[in-house]
Write a structure and sequence with these properties.
Blueprint (H helix, E strand, L loop, with lengths): L1 H7 L4 E2 L15 E5 L8 E9 L15 E9 L11 E6 L10 H13 L4 E6 L10 H9 L2 H10 L25 H15 L3 H7 E6 L1 H11 L19 E5 L7 E3 L3 E3 L3 H17 L11 H16 L15 H11 L3 H6 L11 H9 L15 E3 L2 E3 L12 H7 L5 E3 L10 E3 L19 H10 L11 H8 L4 H4 L13 E6 L14 E5 L6 H4 L11 H10 L6
Parallel strand pairs: 5-6, 5-7, 7-8, 8-15, 15-16
Antiparallel strand pairs: 1-2, 2-3, 3-4, 4-6, 9-10, 11-14, 12-13
């Protein structure tokens, strides 16, 4: 399980010796240094794990899941004790995201503040469900520089460090996640904050609560939550743990937005039956997994694709040639890479016959000019080779519609024009190598594919999330159901503090109205994932503006 990997892997993390000081001494707390190849080198990164047993009602679950974990980023020349920092940003991940997804924005923000003489920390939280993941194969491949070590581990049951991959958890192994919904997620953040920063005044004056995508709505509920259910005792209110909020391509709100309609906070008579139906669905499917594209296997394949690009960017067909032939992988490849409906339906031409570098494969999966799912898109450059407009699942002409944009993103999509041609090898131009063309240009490219590949595979708490708990979606959709409404006792919780909001102009959500003290940025060229992964230096020659503005917001002497 993940905790075993954290303690045993010697390539991505090393045991903390001198130079890594805990936020405060706690029995069972572990903090280890993360070894990273990030170009932002003035930031110390550690992974923190502390014991936090689930309640008895959670049922049988692995002992590794009785812990909370997060990535801690702090300035190399700043204070070692988090309580001495100027501010601490605490981030909830989006759907199918792990803590590692925040690495670039965290490093850029901390580094920018440190350059101005202010010292902040960025804590990227990990959900409990991620304790089920097994990254031993990726870690061993990074250590040896051999992709086969990872693919043999996951695809062929080969041993790594004396262990074999047990497969993807299912059935009884994930049954306990039915109880890991919104309330447990919020309580985990509350307990972590109280234990890492035991002084209530430090939390109230120094902590900024926020997140990316789904994490903004989790933060909205956190701001409204009363953990003891007694509105008269405000010390345990969620808003009392935060001095302000931040939102990355999301809004800090307890109401989920409906494209074209705005926030939707269903009344109790609707929310209660919705929660009941959701509970039945969660019982049948405690982890959100579909037959293809969205399931633990394909989520792990994304990390392996990043690993191939990290180890050998110009290698040709390294990962695709090693992928297993099964219904999920074959259908996922066709769904993500088919240029038109006929190709998707028939599998001809076979996407596996494409000759492409490892960079190009990763780019084709995640770039906004090819990835079909808006919530996975980043602007990481452009494919090098002959292309044609992509019409699957929808033609480019309809992407300007708000509903289509929310689902598929609004960048025009392209597909390779040549398959089964050994003479044509597709390559990839990084974000800072793109020239103006009919589909994109330098102003629309934000994230370095080199850094994206690294973030996908190097982080001990990884970028992707294998096991997303279905109950969390149900609860966020039915926040006025009785069990949740009993704790939503501070409906003005978000209004009590200022909010920093950065929206991707090509992302999923329209920016909110700003109040006095709030900061709202709308970032041209950015896609949903770019808010997390943007390169420290942009194509206009300026430092990355989201992290620059977030650092300025976080270091204001008085937030409001």
């Amino acid at each position: 399980m993940r905790t075993q990997w954290l303690l045993g892997c010697g390539v991505s993390i090393v045991l903390a010796m001198s130079g890594v000081a805990p936020a405060n001494a706690q029995e069972g707390r572990a903090e280890t240094a993360v070894r990273s190849t990030s170009p932002v080198t003035d930031v110390i990164e550690t992974v923190v794990s502390l014991p936090a047993p689930l309640p008895p009602a959670a049922g049988q679950h692995p002992p590794e899941c009785d812990r909370l974990s997060y990535l801690r980023f702090r300035a190399a020349n700043g204070p070692a004790d988090a309580a001495d920092a100027d501010r601490i940003l605490v981030a909830q991940p989006g759907i199918f995201e792990g803590a590692g997804a925040f690495e670039s924005v965290a490093r850029n923000t901390v580094s920018t503040a440190a350059a101005a003489g202010r010292y902040i920390e960025f804590w990227a939280l990990d959900r409990r469900s991620n304790c089920l993941e097994d990254h031993a194969g990726v870690a061993a491949a990074l250590r040896t520089g051999d992709l086969d070590v990872a693919t043999d581990y996951y695809f062929h049951k080969r041993e790594v460090d004396g262990r074999r991959f047990a497969g993807y958890a299912d059935g009884a192994q994930t049954e306990w996640l039915r109880g890991v919904g919104l309330e447990q997620t919020l309580r985990d953040q509350y307990e972590l904050l109280r234990r890492e920063l035991p002084d209530p005044a430090v939390r109230a004056n120094k902590v900024l609560c926020g997140g990316h995508s789904l994490g903004g709505f989790v933060t909205g509920f956190f701001a409204q939550w009363d953990f003891d259910g007694n509105p008269a005792t405000l010390d345990d209110a969620g808003f009392a743990q935060c001095a302000g909020y931040f939102a990355l391509d999301t809004v800090v709100d307890a109401a989920l937005p409906v494209p074209g309609f705005g926030p939707l906070d269903l009344p109790a008579p609707v929310a209660a039956p919705l929660a009941a139906v959701g509970g039945v669905a969660t019982g049948a499917l405690p982890v959100l997994r579909l037959p293809a594209v969205i399931n633990p296997e394909t989520t792990n394949l994304l990390a392996l694709t990043g690993l191939a690009a990290r180890l050998n960017p110009e290698g040709v067909n390294d990962i695709v040639a090693r992928l297993p032939h099964n219904t999920n992988v074959d259908l996922s490849l066709r769904t993500l890479l088919a240029g038109n409906f006929a190709m998707f339906a028939t599998g001809s031409p076979d996407v596996r016959t494409l000759n492409a570098t490892n960079d190009a494969v990763l780019g084709s999966i995640m770039d906004d000019n090819s990835m079909i799912l808006g919530f996975i898109q980043a602007s990481v450059g452009f494919v090098r080779g002959p292309v044609v407009p992509k019409s699957f699942p929808v033609p480019n002409e309809v992407l300007s519609n708000p509903l289509m944009r929310s689902a598929f993103g609004n960048a025009p999509k392209v597909s390779p024009a040549e398959f089964s041609n050994p003479v044509v090898v597709y390559g990839w131009d990084d974000y800072d190598e793109v020239v103006p063309g009919p589909f994109t240009g330098p102003a629309n490219e934000i994230t370095s594919i080199r850094q994206l590949a690294r973030s996908l595979c190097e982080q001990p708490l990884d970028f992707t999330e294998w096991y997303f708990p279905t109950q969390l979606v149900t609860d966020l959709s039915a926040g006025n159901a009785p069990a949740l409404a009993a704790h939503r006792l501070h409906r003005d919780g978000v209004l009590r503090h200022p909010v920093f909001t950065a929206e991707a102009k090509d992302g999923l959500i329209d920016p909110p109205r700003a109040r006095a003290g709030d900061v709202v940025l709308v970032m041209p060229g950015y896609n949903h994932i770019d808010l997390l992964t943007a390169a420290a230096k942009q194509n206009d020659g300026r430092p990355e503006q989201v992290s620059t503005a977030l650092a300025a917001f976080a270091t204001r002497p008085v937030l409001r």
